[in-house]
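We examine the record.

___
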Amino acid sequence: MESPSPATVASLLVEDFGQKVDLTRRIREVLLNYPEGTTVLKELIQNADDAGATKVCLCLDRRVHGSHSLLSEKLAQWQGPALLAYNNAEFTDDDFVSISRIGGSSKHGQAWKTGRFGVGFNSVYHLTDLPSFVSGKYVVLFDPQGVYLPDISTANPGKRIEYVSSSAISLYQDQFFPYCAFGCDMRGPFPGTLFRFPLRNADQAANSKLSKQAYLEDDISTMFEQLYEEGVLALLFLKSVLSIEMYIWDSGVAEPRKIYSCSINSANDDTIWHRQTLLRLPKSTNSSDCMTDAFSLDFLSEEVMGTHSRKRIDTFYIVQTLASSSSRIGSFASTASKDYDIHLLPWASVAACISDHSSNDDVLRLGRAFCFLPLPVRTGMTVQINGFFEVSSNRRGIWYGADMDKSGKIRSIWNRLLLEDIVVPTFAKLLLGVQGFLGPTKLYYSLWPTGSFEEPWSILVEHIYRNIGDVPVLYSDFEGGKWVAPVEAFLHDEEFSNSKELGEALVQLGMPIVHLPNILFNMLLKCASSFQQRVVTPDSVRHYLRECKSVIILSRSYKLTLLEYCLGDLIDTDVGRHAYDLPLLPLASGDFGLLSESSKGILYFICNELEYKLLQPISDRVIDQSIPLNISSRLSAIAKASKTNLSVFNVNNFVQLFPKFVPADWKYKSKVFWDPNVNTNHPTSSWFVLFWQYLRDFCEKLSLFGDWPILPSISGHLYRPSRQSKLLNAEQLSDKMRDLLVKIGCKILNISYHIEHPDLSHYVCGADGAGVLGSIFDAVSSNDSIMQAFLNHLEVEERDELRRFLLDPKWYFGNRMVDTDIWNCKRLPIYRVYDGESAQNFQYLDLENPRKYLPPLDVPECFLGSVFISSSSNEEEEVLKIYFGIERMGRAHFYRQHVLNRVKELQPEVRDRIMLSVLQELPQLCVEDASFREGLRKLEFVPTSSGSMKCPAVLFDPRNEELFALLEDSDSFPCRAFQESGILDMLQGLGLRTSVSPETVLQSARQVERLMHEDQLKAYSRGKVLLSYLEVNALKWVVNPLNDDQGTMNRLLSRAATAFRPRNLKSDLEKFWDDLRMICWCPVIVSSPFHTLPWPVVSSMVAPPKLVRLYTDLWLVSASMRILDGECSSTALAYHLGWSSPPGGSVIAAQLLELGKNNEIVTDQVLRQELAVAMPRIYSILMGIIGSDEMDIVKAVLEGCRWIWVGDGFATLDEVVLNGPLHLAPYIRVIPVDLAVFKDLFLELGIREFLKPSDYANILCRMAMRKGSTPLDTQEIRAAILIAQHLAEVQFYEQQTKIYLPDMSGRLVTATDLVYNDAPWLLGSEDLDSSFGNAATVALNSRRTVQKYVHGNISNDVAEKLGVPFTSEDVAC
């Protein structure tokens, strides 16, 4: 059948019909899916990142713009507050196409792009009905409702305007002025993109078909704050964007102010290379190898609050992986692309915050899922997981679930594969990578997933633990510290009370112990299904110890810990059966015994404290008592159970073992010589004390030991107990006393071993020690001298012992010591006195001569000499004072006679200590001696930082912040302990200075000057401090009140500061300011801020104020003076330092001299602009010195130099005229009109007011000299002709002055050497035959080759007036 013809079809009733999209309805649907808040901002950041932008700026524009020149009157309501979004990437043609479609993103097939201007961009309709942007040479405005823009339709609800060539800004200034921000001027193409979203107000929302939600400025501010809180996360996985900044643009302000910023700290090429790895990966997706990249990034977050800002730096460690094309997930991606047209990239990355000081820890360690930007999906982990997830169209979640079909199932499977095949190994590599940063810290283990998780993250966690068994991610101190895999590790029992030492002991034995947080411990046991995780238990340790051969190397504490742990799960009666062969029984000898059953092994004793000491000679049979109480109690309980080789000690055991403590041949002997120092087999003295203590407490009758000599005597013998031969009881005497009395010759009994027993009275009788003093004199009465006797017989310790005995107060109660006895006591050389050199050395003297004193309390002994007695107790002192008449020296007297006069000789530590005591006691000392304070005020005793000592009056109080800031690091403050507040208060009473004076300021300045030769940077810093101080405090030292034009407040402050000033202070203040101007302390700029600015070759960072000027005088003085590095807002300071007066004429002249060098013509626009501002100031200053001596100096300096500014360069006097018809640079220049006000100055300095004809002739002469034989260019020829015409008009002709004119070739020749062709017919004929008959012609032609003709543009009249001969005249000749 034939097809109908077109005419037939046309005859049918046919109309256009098809599916259409209601744009406003479609946008409403988008807004329902996309949440409000920071989602809008993140979409803009995401699009900028895909565009390759490195910077994003968001600005709340609070301004209300004009509404007079708009594209449509209806647009006036959108000229109010708006959100501006800037990025430094320019729209491409594809971008313009993409943004014009809803859901028409061009990222399809570009797996590495998050999405550009697809559905997500339309979330901006939450904020506005009229979004717009400028990029490149276009402005684009969208009006989906078709209400506001002129001439739009539903088919094309927007406008794109090419604003560059159309000069849109000039026609619709109010419409396009809001886009003039972030470098956009709306006149030339904009190399970036700037969006503007005017905020929808309540009235607009009521009529909007897009959204009924109004947005206020506060809403945007809140969004900025929320974005800043998670700004680091927003930047974390982006590919291109390096910084996000947020601004507020207030009304009436020229530019916005930054309030927040988040950026990559110190971004470099390496940082960019890592972040853009994904952009390179698609080119390698067919690689058969897995690609992994790891790096760390520092993120700088800054919150600006007025003039201050708060910064923080957060560090992340990031690992990103691309699976190979041959892997399971790579094959899946290939199939999805081929069969379902779903383009997937097997790529993921994991990031962990490794900063342990972050103030934003909760946010940065709250794990989230990312698809480049954070998704509103919590993973439950502490790391951030980023991947090419298949997310929902509104980016609210990722595809996951077993109940999906077709493409949904593909996306769900893909996300699971991404987690299992890429995220799992990437997480393991992250743990390996951060080990070098964190070590085995709490922060490191916090990165591990713990707790419960929802799907699909629970599957991720399950696979992490399943696949991490062979990866060395757990730290053990084994082998000096190493990372081990979970499969080889022993998880430590952290619940054991002594867990730390247990772990250390097991590590020494070769067990790879790992310490984990409890929650991670449980997680490993729960989730490590692919291997059997080993754990430390008492049973596992017992088995390990039986097999281990190196237990002997362990320290005592480690063995005790192992013993406690190995017994922990056993009852007392089971110990022998389960803890056998463990070499862990701690013995008193320091060794360890082997634990065994009761019928096996050596018997060991459990003793009480006394028995333990007594049995030390057989310490290898005694359980150590220094072990912890819980272990000791446990071993005692085990011994009482009688199932092991442990037993409780008793007296019958002691009787059987006694031959092991004394020589066996002593048995049955009545007297033996006991010398334990010589005979090692003799029991020691301390052992005998313990022995008698044991007999007293545990032996009822001494007859049990009646066969042994057990009673010690002073003579060194031991006696067998006997009722017939009793010993003398010396109970009231000490061991040393008894020994020295024996040494002197007194026969007494030694009872120094605490021999107490109910049975003792049968063997020992008592003795009275009241006659000791008499016994001593009886013993030495046969000698010639008592002194000699003591020197021959008594040691130092013995003299001390005897003195203590004789000065015992009990002998002086009830007049038991008579005067004779006291006199005899004074004669004995037993009183210890100081030697005045060392606190450790003493002498022994009597009390007779010279007179002796007790020293003041709590004074250093090194100051005490031989007149001071060193008593050993308060009782001795009391006896000496009451019964012997010895007085205590007063403290003031002591300090004056024994301390202050030798301060400079003392060691610093001793000196400081004693002088601090003096200061603390000063009030009391002044009460004791009224003149003491005045003597101390003049004494140099206060240490300073340099080690020198100074008197208080020349030092300063460091608590005064101003003083400390000005004189820091100087030798002007007390140091060390003298800086304590209480001491400083005392020093103030002695003259310590507490306020800043002019002398203090000068001292600070001189300190800076000294530092300049040692440390320039430090001098600069100190100079800045001094400058800041003077800024605030200069009014304190104003010499004269400020002028009226310096402000009412300054005058009030000046008057207040000078109201009560002494009359003679003015001259002192003048000298102060004069001195301060001469000292080198001012911080100055070292390097020129402009490369064309005259600048001296100097390196000093400080200079005297006399040679310094403010930055505002930069272009006036920089050649010869230094420029202050800082502000000087104090008019008083500027006045007294000479900065408020204009620079001197010589300084200005020097500046002009340097500016004129090499600047005949200024082509640098910046320099030209600066000079255009500076030169009027310079000339204005010079105007002020006309008629002064300084002007003569200026003339001398500038004579013959290039110094005159003519608008585009500098000229000399010969090249400049004030008024002239011609500006013939560089030969003659006219002073610019804007400088005409300085006419008097220019005339004073010799500039001509008008040019004379001879001056014009000289211009031609200079031009000829300069050009030589070189032809003039067109401009120069024109100038030469103009000058020639001017000379002709004034009919100038002087024989003495040569006039140069251009010839036909453009070269300058003197007028007399040129001819002017006034007879062209004589030279123009080409008829050679006719020339032969004309003699004149022949003659003229013969001269054509030698004559030079004036330039053709010079008229006959001009040439004639300037003396150029004519051709006809020449022929006539």
Summary: The mean pLDDT is 84. The radius of gyration is 54 Å. The CA atoms of residues 48 and 87 lie 6 Å apart. The first helix runs from residue 6 to 11.
